[in-house]
Amino acid sequence: MGDYPSRSANAGTGGTPVTEGREWPAGASARVAENSFHTSGPSGSGLGGGGALPRARRFGAERAFRGLTMAAGTAVLVVIAAIAIFLVAKAVPALRANTENFWSFEGWFPNDAEPKFGIGALAFGTVLSSALALLVAVPIALGIALYLSHYAPRRLGTTLGFLIDLLAAVPSVVFGLWGREVFINPVRDFSVWLNEYFSWLPLFGGDGPFGRSILLGALVLAIMVLPIITSLSREVFLQTPTANEEAALALGATRWEMIRTAVLPYGRPGIIAAVMLGLGRALGETIALALTLGITFGISFNLIENGGNTIAANIANAFGEANETGRGALIASGLVLFAITLIVNITARAIIYRRREFTESAA
Amino acid sequence: MAKRIEASNVTAYYGGFKAIENINLTVEPKTVTALIGPSGCGKSTFLRSINRMHEVLPGARVEGSLTIDGQDIYDRDVDVTAVRRMIGMVFQRPNPFPTMSIYENVVAGLRLNGVRRKSILDEAAEKALRSANLWDEVKDRLGKPGAGLSGGQQQRLCIARTIAVEPQVVLMDEPCSALDPISTLAIEDLMFQLKDKFTIIIVTHNMQQAARVSDRTAFFSIEKTGDPGRLIEYDNTQKIFSNPSVKKTEDYITGRFG
Asked: Does the keyword Zinc apply (chain A) (predicted)?
């Protein structure tokens, strides 16, 4: 306790939590901090032996370590800034050369003498395929996770959990090839069936051909993001305090009611994080979609007709034959994808942050 | 509102391990019964078998018969959730639902019972919180997280949550062991008030507490580690603490063993 460098630093560390503690109902940590502050005072001067306080050390391991960690932190910023500058520098000339509106033009001809390209259709395809994939994957993943954590016998749960983690280890190009060669057949049959009976819905309209559609891409994506969401939310569900589960059961809850009362609310931030990680993978997924989508440029909600494209898939498909402007255009599209991912992440954090009062006191 | 509990030949297992053997005892309505005994003697196991919480643990099972006003709660046709609604439980550590507000915690049990109307929930919440001597402390912050209260308040919140569903019996598993003396006193006072309405069974390590709060006391013990716990003596609290009939009880309450 005597080696606090100075009193003001001590008061600083003790002071912040105390002022927070005024508004914060838990107050426990604040009170501890307050106490340690008061007790450290007398014992600190006791060690000083009644003489003058020792001088704060100017240099030492503390400083060196602080500098080291700060350098590591700064390095990240430097790398990010370097990447950002590079991307913007490459993208801007291409965007200047574009003779059409970058946001609304539906097509990608950046290599022509008069470059024409637009991000709208690609961004739309990216968001649509990912959203559809999550729509399919999240309920299934949460169902599997709950089964593994709360219903399955322990041994079965462990084995199944392992198999699902194995699914995450399959390379995406394998998923892409499988989707293109095998999975396309049932999806095509299903699409034809949907078209026959539900063609009055714009989602399932059109005259074909069917198969290499947003639906196929989204389903393959759903299978790919399933393991991440499953294993993360399973971990979260397993962490629910037994005391809370028993509290719900003792109130007369059935197992499902117990899960609704204790497990799901407790795991909410974790579930959101898991879904966001899955969404991140879906948005950025490249090769599987490049292989399974029909690669057309157009904004359409039709899910079953051949077509669809995403930003990442387009980069994979178009990079090989791109010239200088073409590469710049692709980099610009990458910036847009980055922005979409950023918005998604910020939204997720905002959702978690809004409920922090309840989730933090859970810890 | 309060019912008689009769246990006959209750034996409980954790997998292959027999935790308690042939427990026979009758708990009268509107009394406080204390279960005391050394660690590992099966008092908590017995308590948890009264509202069928024992079987929640994997591999755990109960034999024998436990009736509440003559109805066997282990009957195959009995809905286990109905048993637990009738026999509420307060745990050793305060366990309010961390994601819920104080109000939500209190009405959680009613919500599980399908009560939706706000006016009924409001009324029940206030009544339960008043019964738990917590209303005045929390009435202005019902929307705040339940986990933000002090330990003693949290435990009273858990008691409010338990009694909000108006059970017949309230089981308490060392409800004060995680609390400071003042909070303990508050909860003991509360038990005196609650026994007007409920049958209360409390497990406690604290013999002074058993002597203070209970009408009847059951002393559990084991021969040695690994043996099942047995009921050694069950009598009026005053008799147990002044003139026990079994030597082992006397040794335990005078501090000579356990």
From this structure: no
Amino acid at A274: A
**Three-state secondary structure along B176-211?**
CCCCCHHHHHHHHHHHHHHCCCCEEEEECCCHHHHH
CB contacts < 8 A (A, B): 95
The superfamily CATH assigns to domain A116-360 is: MetI-like (1.10.3720.10)
B/e letters for B159-187, b = 16+ CB within 10 Å, e = fewer, are bbbbbbbbbbbbbbbbbbebbeeebbebb
More confident residue, A57 or A310: A310
Whether A360 shows a pLDDT value over 70: the answer reads no
* CB contact burial B206-243 (16+ within 10 A = b; e otherwise): bbebbbbbbbbbbbbbbeeeeebbbbbbbbebeebbee
Residue A144, both tokens:
């599997």
Query: In CATH, what class is B5-253?
Result: alpha beta
* Residue B59 near chain A (CB below 8 Å): no
CA distance A252 to A245: 11
Do residues A341 and A126 make contact, with C-beta atoms less than 8 angstroms apart? no
The Cα A223–Cα A203 span in angstroms is 21
Q: What whole-number distance in Å separates Cα of residue B95 and Cα of residue B93? A: 6
Reported as a single tens digit per residue, the pLDDT across A48-82 is 556 778 777 777 888 889 999 999 999 999 998 99
Tens-digit pLDDT profile for residues B43-79 = 999 999 999 999 988 889 999 999 998 889 998 899 9
Contact A252 B81 (CB under 8 A): yes
Q: How far is CA A81 from the centre of its chain?
A: 21
Taking the CA of residue A191 and the nearest CA in chain B, the distance in Å comes to 42
ipTM: 0.90
pTM, two decimal places: 0.78
Domain boundary assignment for chain B: 5-253
Q: Which of A246, A248, A250 sits opposite B88 (nearest CB)?
A: A250
Band (B224; pLDDT cuts 50, 70, 90): confident
Give the A-side interface with B, CB within 8 Å: 24-27, 154, 241, 243-244, 246-254, 257, 261-262, 265-266, 268, 355, 357-359, 361-362
DSSP classification of residue B54 = G
- Interchain proximity B56–A249, CB inside 8 Å: yes
Q: Is residue A23 over pLDDT 80?
A: no
Domain residue ranges of chain A, discontinuous segments joined by +: 7-47, 116-360
Task: Tell me which chain B residue has its CA closest to the CA of residue A28.
Answer: B150
- Are A241 and B95 an interchain contact pair (Cβ–Cβ within 8 Å)? yes
Contact A251 B85 (CB under 8 A): yes
Pairing of β A116-117 and β A108-109? antiparallel
Sign of the CA dihedral running A318, A324, A326, A330: positive
The C-alpha atoms of residue B56 and residue B49 are separated, in whole angstroms, by 10
